[in-house]
């Protein structure tokens, strides 16, 4: 298959995963950028990506042995310097995650042992920190590409992933292409186009007419009808999500503990 087209219900906000908080942006950047380690979606086990292996030296010190021969999309070699740059960047002003996931990383705790060995320290013991790297905040960037791109880097991202960025027509489409120098298993198709199709009906029609090969966000009312045809198949999968009601305890009325307790009693937890 030379070309694959995906239909999404919205456009990416940014192609810099350290500036993104939305699902659409993450869907795109996960094809471009990679972390050191991640969690296998099926086994739920921690597995290596850009790291060959790792050691937990103590509860707040992690030693990573990096894969050799890995290239960024700009042709630069992936090294320990890029790891330090990327994970230190997530703790600073250039990352929207600095106050959340980024605050667990000690910006002064990095140590480059050699070109392919690096030590990363957290601010004290952090449970599940390695597992958290499955989130795109822990993407590894090309230091050179980010510095050259400056404030416009998010428009022309560079990673180590199986696809490299080609173009972005805001509100219409994002085009990626296979990275032929990818260190792992090569992508199954040469060109990957993401079409922005906000309207549910238009997205389903595009799937049924062959304009796209796959869509996200199938309306529940259309699932049975689609599966009754031989044109496409709607797949349901279990997800892991957390929905919560956040209260600003510094402002009225939620500054009053009695109001918060009333909200607690008002929720039917057995429903």
Shape call: globular
Biggest sheet: strand arrangement: 8-9-10-1-11
The secondary-structure class comes to alpha+beta
Order of helices and strands: EHEEEEHEEHEEEHEHH
Fourth-tier CATH superfamily name of the domain at 37-150: Dipeptide-binding Protein, Domain 1
Level of helix content?
Answer: 10-25%
Tell me the strand percentage band.
15-25%
What does the main sheet amount to? 5 strands, mixed
CATH architecture of the domain at 37-150: Alpha-Beta Complex
**How many strand segments?**
11
Q: Low-confidence parts lasting 5 or more residues at pLDDT below 50?
A: none
Describe this structure in words.
This protein has 271 residues and is an alpha+beta fold. The protein has helices spanning 23-29, 80-89, 143-149, 200-208, 220-227, 257-266; strands at 3-8, 37-39, 46-48, 51-58, 61-66, 111-114, 117-121, 163-169, 173-178, 191-196, 214-215. The strands form 3 sheets. It has a 5-stranded mixed beta sheet, covered by helices on one side. β2 and β3 (46-48) form a beta hairpin. 29% of the residues are buried.
In short:
This protein is an alpha+beta fold and 271 residues long. It has helices spanning 23-29, 80-89, 143-149, 200-208, 220-227, 257-266, and strands at residues 3-8, 37-39, 46-48, 51-58, 61-66, 111-114, 117-121, 163-169, 173-178, 191-196, 214-215. The strands form three sheets. Strands 8-9-10-1-11 form a five-stranded mixed sheet, covered by helices on one side.
